[in-house]
């Protein structure tokens, strides 16, 4: 509800209602607990609190779209600006809808606590937007180097490993870790991934020499070119495909989707419902009245849309109408996003949008105002960083910062009042109507990758027609013998590309233990062969997280040094650090190497 700091003009009615906006009332003098309960609970409900079309609804849109009536008009709202009397029944229905059966004792307890709490003046706290980088496969050759680079940059790191003892011995006893196995969905508990904003996935199926290896995997480190390989442990299907599916599902809610998350509305075949209720100035003695309906043909493309409409009046010192959701049964974690985007048809008025992170009825609302253009469908973006903590129309300077991990309710309001004594310059009494087709989160532009995956060059080659396999790396020639390792790596890539998560897929050629620093070749289309150091790949992965040019790109990379020549670095005179954006800028969208397969499909 609007947070108004005002006195209600004395009248027999206004003296008997609770002033939920901050001033004391005579409610307790008029009714005892017993008489209040007896009178209120026996009140009939002659009119529906909310209506969908012309039908009573205790909430909105609890049906499939196919079952909606073709009618989109409800009976007219009875209020006319300046000519209404206060409606006690509507007041009670409002309280009951949002709070359930009334408990006067609990209400007064809460009210006294709020009125007596001190509110010292301090600067408004800013929202903490920091996030953790999750490294999967953190004890592998690339993964442990990624962890080291992130730590040197001072970034918060969490690692996903199967062996805690090994991880702590390798990465340090204080490493923030998750013990889990991407091949086992049950080990990836959602709680583990709270706070994770970005992912670098360096997990790979284990390939080793048939004749065995040293404890530190020295033969493996030389590269598959130098030994007869076999799969060790879980199969490529489990690790590269099922494992990727499990990892994406585990982090998707935490790292966010490129197109955002739909909180309410109707988009294509996708829809999401919320339990909206009217919350008008009737709660403080006013007579304004609003409702929220579904107009099944009212959207800009002729589909369904919500409509916030009503009549606003300043009678009885009122002046606001709003719709508010019931508290969500499970809080929404929106921390992966930068704000909310409302798709609506403006009417030239200024509105407020309020987000609450507390389940309390009368509490701080994190608020943003926005202007609309009359008669135009428009997208309104409300950055979380712009939200101000407002309580009873005043900024709460010592309020905690907005917590996007714990969103519990949403509210849309048209009011005479702004905050801190300011008035809405577009306010006029009378009827209003605001179609609202969707509310969704968004990631602000420019978007950087949220999930960087280390794949492999050659993933599209095993079935490529006309390819001379004798000139290809061992993994391409032995794809079938190695459990279709490259086939499942490609399937895992496809899952990431189709997930909606902003991504970058790095396909290294043969990995070596050589130092980073050689000149590089970046290509797309999956054609190159060669070698590259694990250290260089780790640096590329970390750089990709911060590059808009790498977002949604798939690319191969190798050094210019041929296999026959070792690459060394003089510790006293190391090569300069690379600006990887120079390479990322050359990349193009939509090139994966699958294009050749799709042009010349090979029967399976």
TrEMBL record:
Gene3D superfamilies: Galactose-binding lectin, NAD(P)-binding Rossmann-like Domain
PANTHER family hit by this protein: FLAVIN REDUCTASE-RELATED, UPF0659 PROTEIN YMR090W
Domain NADH:ubiquinone oxidoreductase intermediate-associated protein intervals: 268-434
Pfam families, per database record: CIA30 (PF08547), NAD_binding_10 (PF13460)
Organism for this UniProt entry: Quercus rubra (Northern red oak)
Protein's name in the database: NAD(P)-binding Rossmann-fold superfamily protein
Limits of the NAD(P)-binding domain: 137-210, 449-547
